[in-house]
């Protein structure tokens, strides 16, 4: 059975549509099915395996596991009860490779990144969180292992997606911080805990949990990691540094001085933890790291605006914290 699907969705602000008609989409779907059926099952399967194994076969993991005749569900059940050490290691190695498989299957160049839950849910209504993107750790966590798992190209959809938030994110930056970007001028973009591939960059449908401008500095660490692992300076210059620079420019303008003359973000809120404060550790740490990375990136790509770089260095030094130790030794 050959199955095909298509959509007129296009990740391009503000309409997010390709302009294709229903007939054009139907013809596209029909052509894919026809082409596949003419090639035949063996060729289609071989093409799939070649594509998949090119990525999957890069990493083997040996943690002392041994082969077992048990099926995966039996391994899981035994893991919780009477599995041997070797069987437990087999299950752990299998789980690691399964994570790599999911990344290969859900995050390829030209597509959207893997989301909070996946679009193939066995429900017709009530998909929790609408299968959107949550940047209060979920999306970051999806991609933390990508580079060490030797799947750097699988992170490109994430970088492209964050890039696509810049234009709608400038509307949000103006609405919430009064920071306006003129045509051709990137003056700062903002997105929060919840966002979608339709330009939703405001603080969710409830401010109580949705407010988190530091979501962007955090997800930019994932994007910076692409350069850190690949050392692709051209890609950094064209795709990653512009986002980092624009976000640093936003914080240059939105931070305020506290009573001690230190720079803080206000209001700041640690997702799912709180409370609302000025300059909490969560956000101050992410701002510090944003400046740290953008300064390094600016020097790599040959940023000519030395005044801008010096301003980032100054702001980083003036940040409150980012880590302060309380009287009981707590952070």
Descriptors for this entry?
331 residues; mainly alpha; two-stranded antiparallel sheet; 12 helices; 6 strands; 50% helix; globular
Structural features, described:
By secondary structure, this protein is mainly alpha-helical. Helix content is 50%, strand content 4%. It contains twelve helices and six strands. The protein has helices at residues 22-39, 41-56, 72-79, 85-106, 138-143, 156-164, 166-177, 207-210, 215-230, 233-254, 281-301, 306-318; strands at residues 133-134, 194-195, 256-257, 263-264, 268-269, 276-277. The strands form three sheets. Strands 1-2 form a two-stranded antiparallel ribbon. Strand 5 and strand 6 form a beta hairpin. The longest helix has 22 residues, at 85-106. It is globular and about 70 Å long. The mean pLDDT is 93.
């Amino acid at each position: 059975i050959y199955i095909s699907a298509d959509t007129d969705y296009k990740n391009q602000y503000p309409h997010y549509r390709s302009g294709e008609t229903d007939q054009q989409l139907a013809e596209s779907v029909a052509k894919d099915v026809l082409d596949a059926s003419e090639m035949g099952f063996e060729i289609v399967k071989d093409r799939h395996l070649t594509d998949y194994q090119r990525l999957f076969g890069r990493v083997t993991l040996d943690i002392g596991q041994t082969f077992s005749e048990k099926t995966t569900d039996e391994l899981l059940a035994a893991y919780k009860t009477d599995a041997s050490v070797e069987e437990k290691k087999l299950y752990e190695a299998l789980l690691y490779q399964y994570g790599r498989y999911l990344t290969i299957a859900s995050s390829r160049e030209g597509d959207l990144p893997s989301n909070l839950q996946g679009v193939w849910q066995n429900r017709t209504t009530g998909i929790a969180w609408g299968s959107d993107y949550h940047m209060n750790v979920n999306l970051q966590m999806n991609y933390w292992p990508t580079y060490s798992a030797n799947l750097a190209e699988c992170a490109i959809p994430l970088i492209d997606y964050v890039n696509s938030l810049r234009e709608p994110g400038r509307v949000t930056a103006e609405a919430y911080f009064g920071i306006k970007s003129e045509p051709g001028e990137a003056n700062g973009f903002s997105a929060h805990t919840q966002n979608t591939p339709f330009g939703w960059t405001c603080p969710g449908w409830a401010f109580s949990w949705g407010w988190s401008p530091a979501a962007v500095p955090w997800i930019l660490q994932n994007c910076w990691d692409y350069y850190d692992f690949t050392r692709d300076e051209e890609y950094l210059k064209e795709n990653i540094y512009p986002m980092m620079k624009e976000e640093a420019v936003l914080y240059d303008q939105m931070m305020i001085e506290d009573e001690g003359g230190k720079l803080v973000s206000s209001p700041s809120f640690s997702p799912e933890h709180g409370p609302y404060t000025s300059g909490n550790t969560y956000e101050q740490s992410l701002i510090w790291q944003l400046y740290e990375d953008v300064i390094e990136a600016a020097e790599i790509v040959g940023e000519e605006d030395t005044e801008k770089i010096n301003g980032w260095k100054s702001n980083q030094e003036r940040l409150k914290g980012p880590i302060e130790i309380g009287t009981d030794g707590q952070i």
